[in-house]
Each structure stands twice: as C-alpha cells, then as structure tokens.
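Take a record.
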Amino acid sequence: MDYDFSFFLVAATFVTGVLWGGYWLYLKYADQPYEVEKEPLLVEYARSFFPVVLIVLLLRSFLVEPFRIPSGSMMPTLLIGDFILVNKFSYGVRLPVVNNKIIDMGEPARGDIVVFRFPKQPTVDYIKRVIGVPGDRIAYFDKKLYVNGQPIKQASLGRYQGVGQGGSMTGAEHLEEDLTGVKHSILISHGVPTVEDVFVVPKGQYFVMGDNRDNSNDSRYWGMVPEANLVGKAFLIWMNWDWENNGIAFDRLGTILN
C-alpha cells in the first residue's frame, strides 16, 4: 500500500465521517435532542470538513485529477509549468489507495498521453505517450520509430525555440510524427546518444516514450508499464505557470491534448 495523498484523503474522510456520524448516533440513542446539545469542537470541525473531503475524494478518485508538469520530457506537447487534468475513468474505475479496478472502461491506445505510477517507484507519477500496446513490436534506431515493422512518418518543422524553463531545448529539431493516425510533435537532439533496440510488448503492459525523445526517462531504459499502474489519460491544460516565462502563459490555457 502506498501512503500518498489518496491515502490521507481516504483517512481524512473516514475519520471525519466516524466522528460526525458517531456523535449523531450517540445523541440519537442517548435520547438527547441534537438541536440543544452543544457539539464538541472536534465534532464541529468533522461536520464541517466531512462533505468537503468526501467530494474531493470522489472527484479525484473517479472523475478527474490535476497534475503539474515538473520536467521537459514531454516537450513540446507539455511544457514545464503546465497544469493538466487527467481523466480517471478512461481506462477503468479504480478504488483509491488499493488501485483495484472495479469497472472496466477501456484500454490505452497508441498515441494516448497517460499518467501512471512509475514501476520502479510507485509513489511517483510519470507522464508519457503510449507508443506500443500489448502484442506490438517496437523498434527504435537512428532516432526513428518503427511499429510492427512499419516506419513511423516524421515531417520536420524546423528548429525548436524553447521558452522559460524549456529554453535549453532551443535548437533541437522539431518534427511532427504520425503515430498510426495520431499526429503529434516531438523533439530530437541530434548528437545525443540514446538506446537503440527492439521491444516486444507483453500482454497487459504498455511501451511509453516522452515526446522529448532524447531527454526522457521512459520504457527504453526501464521497461514496460503494467496495466495496474495506469492512473488515467491526460486531456487538458488548464493552467501554465513558469516564472522564467513571465508567469502565466495565457495562450496555453484550455489546450486540448492529443
């Protein structure tokens, strides 16, 4: 069990609910009118906070969860300082903390931007793009991607101009990649060494890569993402704050991710 924010949110909901509900039952069976009995301070706080933490728990666990992008591994699609929303039910409804799937809603497709618990350290959330689904054969050679023996088309968009904390990527080659129908931007840093190999995706697992291909710690280095580690599908940038880029980047607000 991971003692993350979800755990403490569940614990807070449980404790406040027990305190408030327990006091209500005490009054009921003690034959004391609830209206005239002065609540202890702790019970008053529990009654105030219980609905709030319950709503947050339900929203965060089953509908959407906010995340902040701390690194440049998904540039140029996601920039450092982007705040995104993640759909929590795209790949099935899961119980908080234990992460057991209770309702199957679908599976990731190639091109999806997914948030997942890092297999090497499950308390840490990663975000990458799904490149290979179960049964796929993924190859990466000479900065080019191959899926099931087919080369993935790339079209050069020129040299990338980075901004703010992503300024170090200025000069990288900016390309549009067509990942079997899903078009998205990637960055390639020529001269930077990378892993070149062939990867076969096992059943129930996924091969993921960052769009910033030469600055991403992804499946090329540590392997596949098990289905059980999936958190959800990223779908929207709702805020961007980069103090090195004059604060809020209003042009990124409301950007739909693909």
Notes: The longest strand covers residues 230-242. Helices lie at 5-29, 41-62, 219-222. Residues 64-256 form a domain with the Umud Fragment, subunit A fold (CATH 2.10.109.10).
